[in-house]
Amino acid sequence: MYREVSIPRLHAALWISEPDLDASAAGSPESETPRVIVPDGCMDLIVMGSTAVIAGADSTARRITTGPGRAVGLRFDPGVLPQLLRTSAAELANQVTPIAEVVTRAPSFHLGGSAGDDARELLDLAEALASRTVIDGRPLALARALAQPRVPAGSQTFAGSAGFAGYPVFVGSGAGSIAEVAADFAYSPRQLRRLSAAWFGYGPKHLAKILRWRSARELIAAGHTRAAAAALAGYADAAHLWRDERALLGR
Predict the structure, then answer these.
(1) CA distance linking residue 49 with residue 70, whole number of Å
(2) Which pairing describes strands 51-55 and 34-37: parallel, antiparallel, or unpaired?
(3) What pTM was computed for the model?
(4) Pfam families, per this entry (predicted)?
(5) CB of 140 within 8 A of CB of 159?
(6) 82-105: buried (b, 16+ CB within 10 Å) or exposed (e) per residue?
(7) Which of 20, 45, 168, 239 has its CA 20 to 30 A from that of 110?
(8) Whole-angstrom Cα distance, residue 42 to residue 44?
């Protein structure tokens, strides 16, 4: 069973994954079921059993075999968790790292209680990290721009949460080059690649691929055909979507 709730003040979602009791009773141990973690441009703080870890941003799908226990996590919007940790996302990409190796003076966790207890431990840590940090809105605005099919929206600007106004937004369809995105944010392409690696763990072109594919998946889940979802997400055609999907899932 999986459930999640948005935590806007942290730019994150709290999620809880617990074993299916019916499946366990039927003799299908969850430890024998590989899980596919698909890339989403995000980073997580996760509690599994008595272990607290940081899951870096994945470049491609990760296949793991989990035990029968519960997992509780905070999934942060792209570019947020590296700021809270005061580290580069590139140093944590494609790996799982114990929190104590990254967070100096990490609090002592009291894990292994209820899902609510583990969630509170994670939230307390995230709140402590956020209290010492002024979130830079540029990574959020850049991820938003890379996620959307690109036609500049004229004088429109990103008018989301307080502190993030003034950044450009994009509407409509059409694929913009990384050079165009860099220009929109007053960066050179080289600066954009360097900042993207630090904020997200990989370059802007790869992040755009991941976010566009995620958008297409959501459209398909909402009932659109693959061809319609591909067009709405900014792909040239459904075959282009299929190629990106194969590459990101490692098929």
Answers:
(1) 7
(2) unpaired
(3) 0.82
(4) DUF6597, HTH_18
(5) no
(6) bbbbebebbebbeeeeebeeebee
(7) 20
(8) 7
Helix pair 238-249, 226-233: axis angle to 10 deg:
90
Beta-carbon count within 10 A of 78 CB: 27
**Which of 87, 86, 96 shows the shortest CA–CA distance to 58?**
96
Bridge partners of residue 2, in order along the sequence = 17
The SS3 call for residue 16 is: strand
Asked if 65 contacts 31 with a C-beta cutoff of 8 angstroms, the reply is yes
Residue 128's SS3 state is: helix
* Helix or strand (DSSP H, E) at 12: strand 12-17
Note the pLDDT tens digit of each residue in 5-50: 999 999 999 999 887 655 544 555 444 556 788 999 999 999 887 7
Token code pair at residue 65: 């075999």
What lies within 8 Å, CB to CB, of 162 at 6+ separation is none
End-to-end CA distance of the chain: give it in Å, rounded: 27
The structure tokens listed for 170 are 């994009």
Q: Three-class SS of residue 139? A: helix
Closest CA to 118 of 67, 71, 56: 71
Tokens representing 196?
Answer: 């993207």
Identity at 176, one-letter amino acid code: G
Amino acid at 73: G
User: What Cα–Cα distance (Å) separates residue 125 from each residue in 3, 14, 45?
Assistant: 21, 13, 9
Q: At what angle do helices 204-221 and 189-200 cross, to 10 degrees?
A: 60
